[in-house]
Specification:
With 517 residues, the protein is mostly helical. Helices cover 79% and strands 0% of the residues. It binds 3-carboxy-N,N,N-trimethylpropan-1-aminium. 3-carboxy-N,N,N-trimethylpropan-1-aminium binds next to helix 4 and helix 13. Belongs to the BCCT transporter (TC 2.A.15) family.
């Protein structure tokens, strides 16, 4: 541990903050032009490099499956120790950490976007579009997504438990590849880009989640959904978290996470029972089959012939699949740290298969129940989600869907409490890791003022994004933030293999020496 330079790693701290300001200040000063520039950047990156994100996503899944079943799969995170948590707690923690308020949002409404603007050249609002509508959401929250989450967990857990070197910096996890340069400018650049990515991803999350909560409060109390209401919501979520962090209530957020897990079970179970149970289960199973059948096609669909001959351009891959992979990417190193931490005693194979299977399963439940309930309302003619989506926007359509449930006056508050807790936990874990990365060493926990600083910094970008408005601006935050992560994640994967190979070779040599002597 580098104690001689003081606790705060100022170059990384200032570098990351300046990068944040250099993005946010121009957006505040010139919102109109800002929106145009964001949309240009979005089109440029997704249009020219979209294929990289897709290749990266599929490549990650294939790589991890190979690792799981190769000699690396047998590596245990800490020799001969029993896994610290039961499978159930491990899966629950993994899921809660990886998922935030966005699953409430997209789980309920994603299908409606795909129904009206479907992928794969399908006719909008057609019977075929219905099938893809209920499947594509699950795909975007499925095995590729969770593989992206799992990748950084491998090197990090390896250093934690096998080499017994706790890493809280991404640059540190790249050390086997970049050597001493991890301590120099290259290491700082990696950490700054990671922070930048996380700020972008959290920006997307918070700028989506806040209007959802505002819509819920509007539904419950009739409050107008103004920008100031949304600002209050962001501030209150930060304060809830700040109080629990500052008063040393370490358990606070843990308790909130548990509450969230049970409320989720309650909500989803309720929808399954009082909703159209048979429709929900049949549609979900049908979607799983459809995805299984078309997995590679979906993962590689780049819409190559857009606007050529008879082909019309939909930009579906750029708008959705690329955006999603980018969004999972920016969160990945940070969730990777968490997955690593809870995986003591597990083997690499268990970590990989567990993350992909349990993570996907959790998302299938949300999308299968909440999303397909909305689809049911639409198809049965009971309530047109699509109309409300087109006329009043997604938060209103989500509330409209929930209003159709019996006891909606309880369901909506539960849903909103879930979203608020999810937002507070995003602030909690996000600020923890941002603060840790800008410190030279961490004693027990990152310094408090540092943590609070990043908690407030986390709300800059979403505030501005909400002010500018538009789904595409929100998506751009993750897409741009995710771009450097494509390289950093590849470095992490190579680091893991290099470190494991090196240690295996050493172990073999040692054994041979012992035999010889
Ligand atoms: N992911 C899962 O906003 C959230 O729910 C946090 C978002 C990457 C799409 C994660």
């Amino acid at each position: 541990m580098d104690k001689k330079n003081g606790i705060i790693d100022w170059p990384t701290f200032i570098g990351a903050f300046v990068l944040l300001l250099s993005v946010t200040v121009p957006l505040i000063l010139f919102p109109k032009q800002g929106e145009a520039v964001l949309s240009m950047m979005n089109t440029f990156v997704t249009g020219n490099f979209g294929v990289l994100y897709l290749v990266f996503g599929l490549g990650t899944l294939i790589f991890l499956i190979y690792v799981a079943f190769s000699k690396y799969g047998k590596i245990q995170m800490g020799k001969d120790i029993k896994p610290e948590f039961s499978n159930f707690s491990w899966a629950a923690m993994l899921f809660c950490a990886g998922i935030g308020s966005s699953v409430l949002y997209w789980g309920t409404i994603e299908w409606a976007y795909y129904y009206t603007s479907p992928p794969l050249g399908v006719e909008p609002n057609s019977t075929e579009a219905i099938q893809w509508a209920s499947s594509y959401g699950i795909f975007h929250w499925g095995p590729v997504a969770w593989a992206i989450y799992c990748l950084p967990a491998l090197p990090i857990a390896y250093f934690y438990y096998v080499r017994k070197k706790p890493v809280l910096k991404i640059s540190e996890a790249c050390r086997p590849l970049i050597g001493k340069r991890a301590d120099g400018p290259l290491g700082k650049v990696i950490d700054i880009l990671f922070i930048f990515g996380l700020l972008g991803g959290a920006g997307t999350t918070l700028a989506l989640g806040t209007p959802l909560i505002a819509a819920g409060l509007n539904n419950m109390f009739g409050w107008e959904e103004t920008l100031s209401l949304k600002t209050y919501i962001l501030v209150i979520c930060t304060v809830i978290f700040a109080i629990s962090a500052y008063s040393g209530l370490k358990k606070g957020i843990r308790v909130l996470s548990d509450v969230n897990l049970w409320l989720t079970f309650l909500l989803l179970g309720f929808v399954l029972i009082v909703g159209p149970t048979v429709f929900l289960t049949e549609t979900t199973i049908n979607s799983i089959g459809l995805i299984a059948d078309n997995f590679f096609h979906m993962a590689t669909w780049t819409e190559p012939f857009n606007n050529m001959g008879p082909f019309e351009k939909t930009s579906f891959p750029e708008y959705w699949t690329v955006f999603y992979w980018a969004w999972w990417l920016v969160y990945a190193p940070f969730i990777g740290l968490f997955i690593a931490k809870i995986s003591r005693g597990r083997t690499v194979k268990q970590m990989i298969l567990g993350t992909i299977l349990y993570g996907t399963l959790g998302c299938v439940l949300y999308f299968g129940l909440l999303g397909n309930y909305g689809l049911y309302l639409e198809l049965s003619g009971q309530f047109s989600v699509v109309d409300v989506l087109n006329n009043e926007g997604a938060p209103a359509a989500i509330m409209g869907t929930l209003e159709q449930l019996p006891l909606d006056w309880i369901v909506i508050p539960v849903f909103i409490v879930l979203a608020i807790i999810f937002l507070a936990t995003t602030f909690d874990s996000g600020s923890y890791i941002l603060a840790a990365v800008v410190q030279n060493y961490v004693e027990d926990e990152p310094v408090k003022w540092n943590r609070l600083f990043w908690a407030f910094a986390l709300s800059f970008l979403p505030l501005i994004l909400m002010y500018i408005g538009g789904l595409s601006s929100l998506q751009t935050a993750s897409i741009i933030g995710g771009f450097p992560l494509l390289i950093i994640m590849t470095m992490l994967a190579i680091s893991f293999i290099k470190a494991a190979d090196h240690d295996m070779l050493m172990a073999k040599k040692k054994k041979e020496q012992k035999k010889a002597s």
